[in-house]
């Protein structure tokens, strides 16, 4: 009898060990945020319940982010369109940069020759190199573009970019934008490129929205002026992106980078109906999406009158907003306050080519597994829109644009091998299609 009890105990121990090992294995295959914390069925409530827009314009999760919804229209058709490269989806947005230049088109290299940014602590900075990159062999990136260090003004480059974005199935470019005459600290003004980007996007049935960057003197009033400028100048273009409410009313959508730099009390003068220069109900009313970095920002975003929040950064764990494990809580907060939550995912992160001291924020691509884990984490929270960071932010190594192997006398660049240069475009298409298949099921 005692022997039988011992055997039973051993069997029970081995079974328990097996179950524990299986669960731990599953944790390594799936993102930790991949399982619902809600009782069965409750996770469907945000998609089922009627959602009242804070501008008194209801949002409809079945409406296309790209076009108006006709009565009785096919929601699937509204989410997507066809391009020369295949089906594209207007609920997949991708961040896009036009700040690159080379001698052939611009008389000099722009951005490819990025400086090595010194650390803010002089003691730390003294341990790292200073100076500027020297293209074409030495560029401010850990990867090397298949198109070589190109100019954003080159029509052939623009055409190639639109082909690649179409191949990825992303339907909306989120164009990094500065007002006329302004640029980032390492670039040149590029606002005059917007018409060419819109025209190129239009040829591929892509849409373009705007990522308003911080600039000296940016505040609620200047952003109001920026929005008027953009809508007046580009609002009638066939590629100008609009998000559609359940009423069929289409509104432009703007991402506001580093929105936390302006206090919520100031934003509210622009973004709430009672504000001193309110945009609400005017010809310039739009969907405004703020950047969430710290946890407290979600309350500031709500108080400011924004319509939603996005996370931008591709480095999981870098910030509260970019940490996949926090997305469920952020989504729940947004659902409870009638806000859009737009998670941002990226294939990896490495900016040591311009910030040599920032190795601790590097996220290896693991041949695409990092990207797929992030995409699965995004799908798990059932967003209306997903953003991809990025198509071509080469400095931070978040690009999905085609890259090629490159070795010089002094550098060996990273690449996408053993996969081909289209690997991340193909992964994006696979997950964009999966996102829209799952969205159909969520909304049934």
Q: How would you describe this structure to a colleague?
A:
- There is one protein chain.
- The chain has 444 residues and is an alpha/beta fold.
- The chain contains 13 helices and 11 strands.
- It has helices at 2-29, 45-48, 75-79, 103-106, 122-125, 155-168, 194-203, 220-234, 264-271, 297-304, 327-336, 369-380, 423-442, and strands at residues 80-83, 86-96, 170-177, 207-212, 242-244, 250-256, 287-291, 308-310, 340-342, 344-345, 386-388.
- Strands 1, 2, 3, 4, 5, 6, 7, 8, 9, 10 and 11 form an 11-stranded mixed sheet that branches.
- Strand 3, helix 7 and strand 4 form a beta-alpha-beta unit.
- Helix 6 crosses helix 13 (423-442).
- The N and C termini lie far apart (57 Å).
- The model is unreliable at 22-75 (pLDDT under 50).
Count the helices. How many? 13
The helical percent reads 25-40%
Average pLDDT reading = 87
Give the N-terminus to C-terminus distance in angstroms: 57 Å
Along the chain, the helix and strand elements come as HHHEEHHHEHEHEEHEHEHEEHEH
Strand content: 5-15%
Write down the Rg.
Answer: 23 Å
């Amino acid at each position: 009898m005692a022997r039988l009890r011992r055997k039973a105990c051993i069997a029970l121990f081995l079974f328990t060990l097996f179950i524990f090992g299986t669960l731990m294995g599953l944790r390594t295959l799936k993102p930790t945020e991949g399982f619902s914390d809600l009782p069965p069925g409750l996770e469907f409530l945000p998609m089922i319940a009627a959602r009242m827009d804070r501008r008194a314009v209801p949002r409809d999760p079945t409406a296309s982010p790209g076009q108006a919804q006709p009565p009785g229209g096919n929601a699937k058709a509204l989410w997507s369109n066809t391009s020369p490269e295949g089906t594209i989806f207007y609920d997949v947005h991708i961040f896009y940069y036009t700040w690159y230049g080379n001698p052939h088109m611009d008389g000099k290299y722009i951005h490819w020759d990025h400086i090595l940014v010194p650390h803010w602590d002089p003691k730390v900075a003294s341990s790292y190199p200073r100076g500027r990159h020297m293209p074409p062999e030495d560029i401010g990136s850990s990867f090397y573009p298949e198109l070589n260090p190109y100019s954003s003004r080159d029509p052939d480059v623009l055409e190639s970019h639109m082909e690649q974005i179409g191949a990825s199935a992303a339907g909306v470019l989120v164009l990094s934008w500065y007002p006329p005459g302004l640029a980032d600290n390492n670039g040149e003004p590029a606002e005059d490129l917007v018409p060419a980007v819109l025209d190129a996007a239009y040829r591929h049935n892509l849409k373009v929205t705007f990522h308003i960057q911080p600039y000296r003197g940016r505040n609620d009033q200047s952003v109001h002026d920026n929005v008027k400028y953009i809508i007046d100048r580009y609002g009638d273009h066939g590629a100008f992106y609009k998000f559609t409410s359940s009423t069929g009313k289409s509104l432009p959508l703007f991402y506001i980078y580093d929105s936390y730099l302006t206090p919520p009390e100031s934003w509210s003068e622009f973004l709430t109906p009672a504000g001193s220069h309110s945009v609400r109900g005017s010809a310039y009313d739009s969907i405004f999406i703020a950047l969430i970095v710290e946890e407290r920002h979600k309350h500031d975003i709500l108080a400011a009158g924004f319509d939603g929040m996005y996370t931008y950064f591709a480095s999981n764990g870098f910030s509260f907003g970019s940490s996949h494990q926090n997305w469920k809580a952020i989504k729940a907060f947004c659902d409870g306050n009638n806000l859009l939550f737009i998670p941002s995912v990226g294939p990896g992160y490495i900016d040591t080519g311009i910030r040599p001291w920032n190795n601790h924020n590097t996220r290896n691509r693991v041949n695409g597994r990092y990207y797929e884990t992030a995409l699965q984490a995004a799908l798990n929270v059932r967003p209306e829109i997903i953003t991809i960071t990025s198509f071509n932010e080469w400095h931070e190594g978040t690009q999905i644009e085609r890259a090629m192997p490159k070795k010089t006398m002094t550098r060996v660049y990273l690449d996408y091998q053993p996969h081909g240069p289209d690997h991340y475009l193909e992964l994006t298409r696979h997950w964009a299609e999966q996102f829209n298949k799952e969205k159909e099921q969520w909304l049934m």
